[in-house]
Amino acid sequence: DAGVIQSPRHEVTEMGQEVTLRCKPISGHNSLFWYRQTMMRGLELLIYFNNNVPIDDSGMPEDRFSAKMPNASFSTLKIQPSEPRDSAVYFCASSRGQGNEKLFFGSGTQLSVL
Amino acid sequence: LAKTTQPISMDSYEGQEVNITCSHNNIATNDYITWYQQFPSQGPRFIIQGYKTKVTNEVASLFIPADRKSSTLSLPRVSLSDTAVYYCLVGDKGGSQGNLIFGKGTKLSVKP
User: Fold this and answer.
1) Is A87 helix (H, G, I), strand (E, B) or coil?
2) Contacts of A31 in chain B (CB under 8 A)
3) How far is it, in rounded angstroms, from Cα B23 to Cα B8?
4) Between β-strands A88-95 and A109-113, what pairing exists: parallel, antiparallel or unpaired?
5) Which of A5, B2, B50, B82 could make a disulfide contact with B90, Cβ separation 3.0–4.6 Å?
6) CB contact under 8 A, B44 and A103
7) What tens digit of pLDDT does each residue of A79-110 get?
8) pLDDT of B1 strictly over 70
9) Contact with chain A for residue B40, Cβ under 8 A
């Protein structure tokens, strides 16, 4: 199994631009999670899906952030417009269930907003 | 919501056994305890999970006392490659993901 695949690995953009992060979960996993990691706040859950349906988006910082999961093998996290404070590492993870089930993380996307 | 407390950092030397303790005083009956390891520039990786007593796998052991208010991750004979951040999480399976908090973890530094 290739594991959770995220793209791009690095993204550098200018303030105000739209950013789209992509994730392919492990086949057969029915839950997908987007996390953000910064030095100040650690690893934070932004949103998670179960069977392609958003379950909890309370961690999404504001309306500039949106996430979709059109099918079981693909998800996107979009930031529009981006701001310098959005600079962080964004991780996608998947699991067979919800809650304290084993999470499999991707390698992350390092986002820098200038 | 089971909050966890673990040391910010720990130092060790190669070949030593390392024990990282996590406190979770308000753990609920259905909660499991899970540990993850994170290397720089990588996502966290599952190490071990347990509910009570002792769990052992090829990487680590997890010791959970009877009251389950704490747990200890034990890494036998660490090497330089074990330098990483270790996270303790507490939550029930099938519950809300929002209740599963990674926190800042414990930064383990292994020296030669």
Assistant:
1) coil
2) 97
3) 13
4) antiparallel
5) B2
6) yes
7) 999 999 999 999 999 999 877 889 999 999 99
8) no
9) no
